[in-house]
Design a protein that fits this description.
Blueprint (H helix, E strand, L loop, with lengths): L1 E3 L14 H10 L3 E6 L5 E3 L1 H6 L11 H6 L3 H17 L2 E9 L5 E12 L5 E10 L1 H76 L3 H32 L8 E4 H16 L6 E6 L4 E4 L1 H18 L4 E10 L4 E11 L33 H11 L3 E6 L4 E12 L18 E6 L5 H10 L3 E5 L2 H11 L4 E6 L8 H7 L4 E6 L13 E5 L4 H9 L21 E5 L3 H13 L3 E5 L2 H11 L3 E5 L7 H15 L6 E5 L4 H9 L4 E4 L4 H15 L1
Parallel strand pairs: 8-10, 14-15, 14-16, 16-17, 17-18, 19-20, 19-21, 21-22, 22-23
Antiparallel strand pairs: 1-4, 2-3, 2-6, 4-5, 5-6, 7-9, 9-13, 10-11, 11-13, 12-13
């Protein structure tokens, strides 16, 4: 709203508009005219103004106060101020306001007004003209809104285009890295496959040409090893393809993480013992039992160990597990596996790629010919469990892998270590071992249980301590590849009443027969094992390695249903080596008949058979036993397919086990032992 003052002196007296001439002029105008007497407050509106508000002739008699109420509340004060300023200045003003019509809607009007003086020279009359600009104003506002929307759309498109260009550049870089990585993957796998295939074919050819039976036997054994290596490589390629496509089955259960990690170290100790090596083991945390996918975690640890051994042959390995409490009954689990030829850097390189190192550059330490797929598969498995893998490089070489993931906490109280009595004085436990043994790490675990460990790394220190303080209740001997610090018979004579535990890398090699009060266990000792013995004071008889001395299975007669003559010959020979009687069938129908006639203890059923397949044959065998109301013998599936979903199908079909081809004698023995244990 604006007010313009006149540039000429105001018109007075007879110049004041009115009368017949004024009415005639108004009738000729398209604008609506209004006039207000400032002395009396009388308001007059022209008929055209009335029509623009929706009123007919003489239908609306305007009154000042009532007409002011027709002004939009947002415009009323500004309109009144403009007219007052024009009256004081005897000038004119322009305005644009909304006025309510007869239909109670508001329309925009644009106008101008001028103050006319009376006889006293002061403003007496206001005369104004208005023009209906509602459609113009609406069109302008619509145009402004459209312009604003177009401007915003342009800005959005510009930002989206920038994001698209940036993403395209990043994707191009990523695809370039993936392409380079997959090219190296193909080269690396080609090397491994060709090496195994060349060895297998070459040694087989030499064996065929050899006249010496012993030489032929050696060459066939080498060819067999090459075949196993080829099978392992193909299995890794298949598993990596499954993981890369997102095919990962998860099965969470409660298990003792401390014992699982200790068992992983025992397995590695068995492999490294011949070379004089081993794994330094430690477990930090009070929670032992977690709820997670045990099978996947075992596979992660195994593959990281295997990669560490390949990356740093001959280097010492160290495996540390840390478990800390998190929110909502969750546990933060961290594995650290390292092959140390130098101290690790402080800063980890995160974002380990499946075929590259963290920097995106090819690294022979991480990926190269002969390295295999252990690290990429481990990384994919950890990601499937919701965790991450990071890498630290040693200053002088080596690689240190860290796995972080979350697990559920066992809420039944089984996950925590046994608590010692509050009023109990920490009891001394002697830890005896060579300086090169894991005695110090073992002592740390013992201290976490509330005991007072004393590490003795020489025979003189042992004799001196025994002379000063007497023998302790517990002594743990850490046997390394250097052997025992003190021979067990001598140690027994020195401490006849002490409970002695020997933690050995190779328990089967220790002679403990006839030595009372000595228990030999497979190193490393887990926290649970230590707690069961030390905290609960369990004094057991001498133990042997838990995997030694297995009972011979009670299975005597096996029905092998296999249509492939070569596979039938190989598996039957393995069963014969296990001391089993073998019945043969080459089709599903023959297998059903043989089972009805001879009642085997176990059926090994090939799934892909001519005629009825293995699943249908298994159903018919089970139906035979249901009809006779007798217990069906276990049926184990044999197949070349290793898909997890296939395993689910066979389990739903009622089969008792599963073996993937090619089958080994060890796998057969393990499956038979499992069936015997399950039947007890």
């Amino acid at each position: 709203m604006s007010v313009r003052t006149p540039t000429a002196p105001p018109v007075r007296g007879s110049e004041n508009p009115g009368g017949e001439l004024f009415a005639r002029v108004v009738s000729e105008l398209n604008d609506g005219i209004w006039k207000r007497n400032l002395k009396t407050g009388e308001l007059w509106l022209s008929s055209r103004f009335m029509q623009s508000l929706g009123f007919g002739a003489n239908e609306y008699v305007p009154e000042k106060d009532l007409f002011d109420e027709r002004l939009h509340s947002d415009d009323r004060a500004a309109m009144q101020t403009a007219l007052q300023q024009a009256a004081r200045a005897l000038g004119q003003c322009a305005y644009e306001v909304r006025i309510r019509t007869k239909q109670d809607g508001y329309r925009w009007f644009r106008g101008r007004a001028r103050a006319w003086p009376g006889a006293d020279g002061k403003a007496a009359i206001l005369i104004g003209a208005v023009f209906n600009v509602h459609d113009e104003r609406a069109a302008l506002e619509d145009l402004q809104h459209r312009h604003a929307r177009l401007a915003q759309a342009y800005r959005d498109k510009e930002l989206a285009l920038r994001d698209t260009v940036r993403d395209a550049g990043e994707r191009h870089t990523e695809l370039e890295k993936i392409g380079n990585g997959r090219a190296r993957f193909i080269l690396g796998m080609s090397h491994d496959l060709r090496t195994s295939l060349t060895n297998m074919m070459g040694m087989t050819e030499l064996a065929l040409r050899s006249a010496d039976p012993e030489a032929r036997q050696r060459r066939l054994e080498v060819a067999l090893d090459a075949g196993h290596a080829l099978q392992s490589t193909l299995d890794d390629v298949f598993e990596y393809a499954q993981l890369d496509s997102g095919v990962v089955a998860r099965d969470a259960s409660a298990f003792d993480l401390g014992e699982l990690t200790a068992e992983a170290c025992r397995t590695m100790n068995d492999q490294l013992a011949a070379a004089g090596g081993g794994v330094e083991y430690d477990f930090i945390g009070q929670h032992l039992t977690i709820v997670a996918d045990m099978t996947r975690l075992q596979e992660v640890i195994r593959r990281l160990f295997q990669h560490a051994v390949k990356t740093c042959p001959g280097a010492s390995l160290r495996f540390t597990t840390r478990v800390t409490e998190a929110a909502d009954h969750r546990l933060a689990v961290r594995f650290e596996i390292g092959c140390s030829t130098g101290a690790p850097r402080d800063e980890p390189e995160t974002g380990l790629m499946p075929l590259e190192d963290a920097s995106g550059q090819h690294s022979e330490d991480i990926w190269g010919e002969g390295q295999g797929l252990n690290l990429p598969i481990a990384r994919r498995l950890v990601e499937a469990l919701g965790g991450e893998v990071s890498l630290k490089r040693g200053v002088g070489g080596g690689a240190h892998f860290s796995v972080r993931l979350m697990a559920a906490q066992a809420l039944d109280g089984t996950g925590e270590l046994p608590a010692m009595a509050a009023d109990r004085t920490p009891e001394s436990v002697w830890v005896i071992g060579h300086p090169g043994s894991d005695a110090n790490l073992l002592a740390r675990r013992i201290r976490r249980l509330g005991f007072d460990p004393l590490v003795l790394d020489s025979k003189n220190a042992l004799l001196s301590c025994e002379e000063r303080n007497g023998a302790p209740y517990w002594a743990i001997v850490a046997a390394s590849h250097l052997g025992l610090l003190v021979p067990l018979p001598e140690l027994r004579r020195l401490m006849p009443h002490t409970r002695v535990i020997v933690s050995a890398l190779a328990p089967d090699l220790l002679e403990v027969a006839g030595i009372a009060g000595v228990a030999v266990v497979h190193a490393p000792l887990s926290l649970r094992h230590l707690a069961d013995r030390l905290v609960l004071k369990q004094n057991r008889a001498a133990e042997t390695h838990p995997r030694a001395g297995r009972r011979r299975h009670a299975i005597e007669r096996v029905l092998l249903v296999e249509d492939n003559a070569v596979s039938q010959l190989i598996i039957a020979d393995m069963l014969g080596q296990l001391g089993l009687k073998v019945l043969l069938a080459t089709s599903g129908e023959e297998g059903v008949a043989r089972c009805r006639e001879h009642a085997p203890d176990v059926v090994l059923m090939d799934i892909s058979l001519p005629g009825i397949d293995g699943l249908e044959a298994a159903r018919q065998i089970q139906q035979q036993h249901r009809a006779k109301r007798t217990r069906c013998c276990p049926i184990v599936a044999l197949t070349a397919s290793a898909l997890d979903n296939s395993r689910d199908i066979w389990q739903k079909a009622g089969l008792d086990g599963f073996l993937a081809k090619p089958v080994t004698r060890e796998a057969l023995a393990a499956e038979f032992n499992r069936l015997v244990q399950a039947a007890r």
